[in-house]
Protein backbone atom coordinates (compact mmCIF):
# COMPACT_ATOMS: atom_id res chain seq x y z
CA UNK A 1 0.00 0.00 0.00
CA UNK A 2 1.11 3.63 0.40
CA UNK A 3 1.23 6.65 2.73
CA UNK A 4 0.15 10.19 1.89
CA UNK A 5 -0.63 13.60 3.34
CA UNK A 6 -2.57 16.69 2.33
CA UNK A 7 -1.95 20.19 3.71
CA UNK A 8 -3.96 23.41 3.46
CA UNK A 9 -3.32 26.65 5.33
CA UNK A 10 -0.55 29.13 6.03
CA UNK A 11 2.17 28.75 3.37
CA UNK A 12 4.99 26.56 4.68
CA UNK A 13 8.05 24.90 3.21
CA UNK A 14 7.39 21.37 2.00
CA UNK A 15 10.24 20.11 4.18
CA UNK A 16 8.33 21.20 7.30
CA UNK A 17 6.06 18.19 6.83
CA UNK A 18 8.03 15.89 4.54
CA UNK A 19 11.22 15.81 6.65
CA UNK A 20 11.06 17.61 10.00
CA UNK A 21 8.36 15.86 12.08
CA UNK A 22 9.36 12.89 14.22
CA UNK A 23 7.26 10.56 12.07
CA UNK A 24 7.52 12.55 8.86
CA UNK A 25 6.36 11.19 5.53
CA UNK A 26 9.99 10.46 4.64
CA UNK A 27 10.41 8.54 7.92
CA UNK A 28 7.26 6.59 7.05
CA UNK A 29 8.83 5.53 3.76
CA UNK A 30 11.12 3.30 5.84
CA UNK A 31 9.31 2.92 9.16
CA UNK A 32 5.55 3.04 8.63
CA UNK A 33 3.77 2.19 11.88
CA UNK A 34 0.23 1.74 10.59
CA UNK A 35 0.62 0.69 6.97
CA UNK A 36 0.28 -2.78 5.48
CA UNK A 37 4.00 -2.63 4.69
CA UNK A 38 6.68 -1.10 6.89
CA UNK A 39 8.60 0.13 3.83
CA UNK A 40 7.12 2.30 1.07
CA UNK A 41 10.01 2.58 -1.37
CA UNK A 42 8.46 2.28 -4.84
CA UNK A 43 8.31 5.96 -5.69
CA UNK A 44 7.53 9.37 -4.27
CA UNK A 45 5.68 12.43 -5.43
CA UNK A 46 4.42 15.83 -4.39
CA UNK A 47 2.01 18.21 -6.10
CA UNK A 48 1.74 21.79 -4.89
CA UNK A 49 0.05 25.07 -5.72
CA UNK A 50 2.63 27.87 -5.78
CA UNK A 51 2.10 30.90 -3.57
CA UNK A 52 0.26 33.70 -5.42
CA UNK A 53 -0.16 31.59 -8.55
CA UNK A 54 -3.27 30.27 -10.27
CA UNK A 55 -3.84 27.40 -12.66
CA UNK A 56 -2.26 23.96 -12.74
CA UNK A 57 -0.31 22.75 -9.74
CA UNK A 58 3.37 21.91 -10.02
CA UNK A 59 4.30 18.23 -9.88
CA UNK A 60 7.39 16.25 -8.86
CA UNK A 61 7.44 12.45 -9.17
CA UNK A 62 10.32 10.00 -8.99
CA UNK A 63 10.63 6.20 -8.99
CA UNK A 64 13.30 5.83 -6.31
CA UNK A 65 12.70 5.58 -2.57
CA UNK A 66 11.85 8.85 -0.87
CA UNK A 67 14.54 8.54 1.80
CA UNK A 68 17.40 8.76 -0.72
CA UNK A 69 16.03 11.28 -3.22
CA UNK A 70 18.37 14.29 -3.04
CA UNK A 71 16.33 16.22 -5.62
CA UNK A 72 13.23 15.93 -3.45
CA UNK A 73 15.18 17.19 -0.44
CA UNK A 74 16.41 20.23 -2.38
CA UNK A 75 12.94 20.98 -3.74
CA UNK A 76 11.30 20.58 -0.33
CA UNK A 77 13.78 23.01 1.25
CA UNK A 78 13.30 25.67 -1.42
CA UNK A 79 9.53 25.46 -2.04
CA UNK A 80 6.69 26.97 -0.01
CA UNK A 81 3.01 26.37 -0.64
CA UNK A 82 -0.38 26.94 1.01
CA UNK A 83 -1.76 23.67 -0.37
CA UNK A 84 -0.01 20.46 -1.35
CA UNK A 85 -0.38 16.69 -1.55
CA UNK A 86 2.52 14.26 -1.04
CA UNK A 87 2.68 10.49 -1.49
CA UNK A 88 5.08 7.60 -0.97
CA UNK A 89 4.31 4.43 -2.92
CA UNK A 90 4.35 0.73 -2.19
CA UNK A 91 3.33 -1.00 -5.41
CA UNK A 92 0.45 -3.50 -5.34
CA UNK A 93 1.70 -5.18 -8.51
CA UNK A 94 1.92 -2.55 -11.25
CA UNK A 95 5.39 -1.48 -12.45
CA UNK A 96 7.63 0.94 -10.60
CA UNK A 97 7.73 3.77 -13.12
CA UNK A 98 7.25 7.52 -13.03
CA UNK A 99 3.81 7.48 -14.66
CA UNK A 100 2.57 5.23 -11.84
CA UNK A 101 3.70 7.57 -9.07
CA UNK A 102 1.22 9.82 -7.28
CA UNK A 103 -0.09 12.50 -7.25
CA UNK A 104 -1.97 12.22 -10.52
CA UNK A 105 -2.85 15.54 -12.15
CA UNK A 106 -5.61 16.62 -14.51
CA UNK A 107 -5.90 20.34 -15.23
CA UNK A 108 -6.08 21.99 -11.77
CA UNK A 109 -6.88 18.73 -9.93
CA UNK A 110 -4.57 16.43 -7.94
CA UNK A 111 -5.33 12.91 -6.66
CA UNK A 112 -3.56 10.53 -4.25
CA UNK A 113 -4.71 7.07 -3.17
CA UNK A 114 -3.77 4.42 -0.65
CA UNK A 115 -5.33 1.00 -1.16
CA UNK A 116 -6.14 -1.17 -4.13
CA UNK A 117 -8.76 -2.72 -6.37
CA UNK A 118 -8.70 -6.45 -5.67
CA UNK A 119 -7.86 -8.51 -8.78
CA UNK A 120 -7.49 -5.30 -10.78
CA UNK A 121 -6.11 -7.15 -13.82
CA UNK A 122 -9.43 -9.02 -14.16
CA UNK A 123 -11.54 -5.90 -13.76
CA UNK A 124 -9.37 -3.36 -15.57
CA UNK A 125 -10.87 -3.69 -19.05
CA UNK A 126 -14.45 -3.08 -17.91
CA UNK A 127 -13.37 -0.18 -15.72
CA UNK A 128 -11.26 1.54 -18.36
CA UNK A 129 -14.08 1.26 -20.90
CA UNK A 130 -16.25 3.30 -18.53
CA UNK A 131 -13.80 6.25 -18.66
CA UNK A 132 -14.89 9.15 -20.85
CA UNK A 133 -13.12 8.62 -24.22
CA UNK A 134 -11.95 12.24 -24.17
CA UNK A 135 -10.09 11.53 -20.90
CA UNK A 136 -8.46 8.31 -22.03
CA UNK A 137 -5.39 9.95 -23.66
CA UNK A 138 -4.43 11.55 -20.33
CA UNK A 139 -3.99 8.15 -18.63
CA UNK A 140 -0.23 7.55 -18.88
CA UNK A 141 0.28 4.79 -16.31
CA UNK A 142 -1.13 1.37 -15.46
CA UNK A 143 -2.35 1.68 -11.85
CA UNK A 144 -5.79 1.16 -10.39
CA UNK A 145 -5.36 4.55 -8.67
CA UNK A 146 -5.14 6.42 -11.98
CA UNK A 147 -8.16 4.59 -13.37
CA UNK A 148 -10.11 5.52 -10.23
CA UNK A 149 -9.15 9.18 -10.73
CA UNK A 150 -10.32 9.22 -14.34
CA UNK A 151 -13.54 7.44 -13.47
CA UNK A 152 -14.21 10.09 -10.83
CA UNK A 153 -13.59 12.84 -13.40
CA UNK A 154 -15.90 11.02 -15.83
CA UNK A 155 -18.64 10.99 -13.18
CA UNK A 156 -18.36 14.70 -12.41
CA UNK A 157 -15.48 15.21 -9.96
CA UNK A 158 -15.09 18.81 -11.09
CA UNK A 159 -18.70 19.70 -10.25
CA UNK A 160 -19.88 17.28 -7.52
CA UNK A 161 -16.80 15.59 -6.03
CA UNK A 162 -18.49 13.47 -3.34
CA UNK A 163 -21.17 12.15 -5.69
CA UNK A 164 -18.55 11.45 -8.37
CA UNK A 165 -16.37 9.37 -6.04
CA UNK A 166 -19.45 7.52 -4.76
CA UNK A 167 -20.37 6.62 -8.35
CA UNK A 168 -16.78 5.54 -9.03
CA UNK A 169 -16.81 3.25 -5.99
CA UNK A 170 -20.22 1.88 -6.94
CA UNK A 171 -19.05 1.02 -10.44
CA UNK A 172 -16.00 -0.83 -9.12
CA UNK A 173 -18.13 -2.89 -6.76
CA UNK A 174 -20.67 -3.62 -9.50
CA UNK A 175 -18.03 -4.76 -11.98
CA UNK A 176 -16.34 -6.87 -9.29
CA UNK A 177 -19.66 -8.53 -8.43
CA UNK A 178 -20.13 -9.54 -12.08
CA UNK A 179 -16.66 -11.11 -12.07
CA UNK A 180 -17.13 -12.85 -8.71
CA UNK A 181 -14.50 -10.75 -6.91
CA UNK A 182 -15.40 -10.20 -3.23
CA UNK A 183 -14.65 -7.03 -1.25
CA UNK A 184 -12.98 -5.35 -4.24
CA UNK A 185 -12.28 -1.80 -3.06
CA UNK A 186 -9.89 -0.49 -0.43
CA UNK A 187 -9.22 3.23 -0.46
CA UNK A 188 -8.23 6.34 1.32
CA UNK A 189 -8.21 9.17 -1.21
CA UNK A 190 -7.14 12.79 -1.15
CA UNK A 191 -8.09 15.11 -4.01
CA UNK A 192 -8.07 18.87 -4.50
CA UNK A 193 -8.88 21.55 -7.04
CA UNK A 194 -6.41 23.98 -5.47
CA UNK A 195 -9.09 25.59 -3.32
CA UNK A 196 -10.67 22.78 -1.27
CA UNK A 197 -9.46 19.31 -0.30
CA UNK A 198 -11.76 16.29 -0.33
CA UNK A 199 -10.77 13.14 1.51
CA UNK A 200 -12.43 9.71 1.53
CA UNK A 201 -12.03 6.62 3.71
CA UNK A 202 -13.87 3.50 2.54
CA UNK A 203 -13.46 -0.22 1.93
CA UNK A 204 -15.90 -2.84 0.67
CA UNK A 205 -15.11 -5.01 3.69
CA UNK A 206 -15.58 -2.21 6.23
CA UNK A 207 -11.97 -2.29 7.50
CA UNK A 208 -10.35 0.66 5.79
CA UNK A 209 -6.72 1.78 5.91
CA UNK A 210 -5.77 4.37 8.51
CA UNK A 211 -6.47 8.07 7.99
CA UNK A 212 -6.37 11.05 10.38
CA UNK A 213 -7.13 14.76 10.38
CA UNK A 214 -5.51 17.45 12.51
CA UNK A 215 -7.43 19.12 15.30
CA UNK A 216 -8.46 22.70 14.45
CA UNK A 217 -5.87 25.29 15.38
CA UNK A 218 -7.92 26.97 18.10
CA UNK A 219 -8.35 23.70 19.97
CA UNK A 220 -4.74 22.70 19.37
CA UNK A 221 -3.39 25.99 20.75
CA UNK A 222 -5.56 25.55 23.83
CA UNK A 223 -4.18 22.04 24.34
CA UNK A 224 -0.56 23.12 23.80
CA UNK A 225 -0.03 26.83 24.65
CA UNK A 226 3.69 26.13 25.05
CA UNK A 227 4.20 25.54 21.31
CA UNK A 228 5.10 28.81 19.56
CA UNK A 229 4.95 27.22 16.10
CA UNK A 230 1.18 26.82 16.39
CA UNK A 231 0.76 30.58 16.71
CA UNK A 232 2.17 31.12 13.24
CA UNK A 233 -0.47 28.95 11.57
CA UNK A 234 -3.83 30.38 10.53
CA UNK A 235 -7.13 29.22 12.00
CA UNK A 236 -7.86 27.55 8.66
CA UNK A 237 -4.75 25.35 8.64
CA UNK A 238 -5.57 21.65 8.33
CA UNK A 239 -3.66 18.45 7.68
CA UNK A 240 -4.84 14.99 6.54
CA UNK A 241 -2.39 12.10 6.99
CA UNK A 242 -2.30 8.34 6.55
CA UNK A 243 -0.74 8.17 9.99
CA UNK A 244 0.17 10.81 12.60
CA UNK A 245 3.38 12.77 12.14
CA UNK A 246 4.01 12.86 15.89
CA UNK A 247 2.64 11.94 19.29
CA UNK A 248 1.32 15.34 20.43
CA UNK A 249 -1.72 14.61 22.58
CA UNK A 250 -4.99 15.79 21.06
CA UNK A 251 -3.45 16.67 17.67
CA UNK A 252 -4.91 13.86 15.56
CA UNK A 253 -8.39 12.44 15.15
CA UNK A 254 -9.21 9.33 13.10
CA UNK A 255 -11.38 9.82 10.03
CA UNK A 256 -14.47 7.64 10.65
CA UNK A 257 -15.05 4.49 8.64
CA UNK A 258 -17.02 5.01 5.40
CA UNK A 259 -16.87 8.79 5.46
CA UNK A 260 -15.77 11.82 3.49
CA UNK A 261 -14.36 15.15 4.63
CA UNK A 262 -14.04 18.56 3.00
CA UNK A 263 -11.34 21.03 4.03
CA UNK A 264 -12.40 24.53 3.01
CA UNK A 265 -12.64 28.16 4.07
CA UNK A 266 -15.07 28.45 6.96
CA UNK A 267 -16.56 25.33 8.47
CA UNK A 268 -15.15 22.02 7.29
CA UNK A 269 -17.52 19.14 6.51
CA UNK A 270 -17.62 15.49 7.55
CA UNK A 271 -20.24 13.15 6.10
CA UNK A 272 -21.19 9.57 5.41
CA UNK A 273 -19.74 7.95 2.27
CA UNK A 274 -21.79 5.32 0.45
CA UNK A 275 -21.05 3.93 -3.03
CA UNK A 276 -23.78 4.69 -5.57
CA UNK A 277 -24.99 2.06 -8.02
CA UNK A 278 -24.12 2.64 -11.68
For this entry, give a set of tags.
278 residues, alpha+beta, hydrolase activity, seven-stranded antiparallel beta sheet, Glutamine Phosphoribosylpyrophosphate, subunit 1, domain 1, six-stranded antiparallel beta sheet, glutamine amidotransferase, 13 strands, globular, 24% helix
Task: Describe it.
It is a single chain. The protein is α+β, with helices and mostly antiparallel strands. The protein has 7 helices and 13 strands. It has a single domain, classed as Aminohydrolase, N-terminal nucleophile (Ntn) domain (Glutamine Phosphoribosylpyrophosphate, subunit 1, domain 1, 4-Layer Sandwich), CATH 3.60.20. A 7-stranded antiparallel sheet has the order 3-2-4-1-10-9-11. The chain has a 6-stranded antiparallel sheet with strand order 5-6-7-8-12-13. β12 and β13 form a beta hairpin. α4 crosses α6 and α5 crosses α6. The mean pLDDT is 93.
Strand-helix topology:
Elements: E1 2-13, H1 15-18, H2 25-31, E2 44-49, E3 58-62, H3 70-78, E4 80-89, E5 104-106, E6 109-117, H4 120-129, H5 144-154, H6 161-179, E7 185-192, E8 197-203, E9 212-214, H7 217-223, E10 238-241, E11 252-254, E12 259-263, E13 269-272
Antiparallel strand pairs: 1-4, 1-10, 2-3, 2-4, 5-6, 6-7, 7-8, 8-12, 9-10, 9-11, 12-13
Helix pairs in contact: 4-6, 5-6
Domain Glutamine amidotransferase type-2: 2-244
Enzyme class: hydrolase
GO molecular function: hydrolase activity; transferase activity
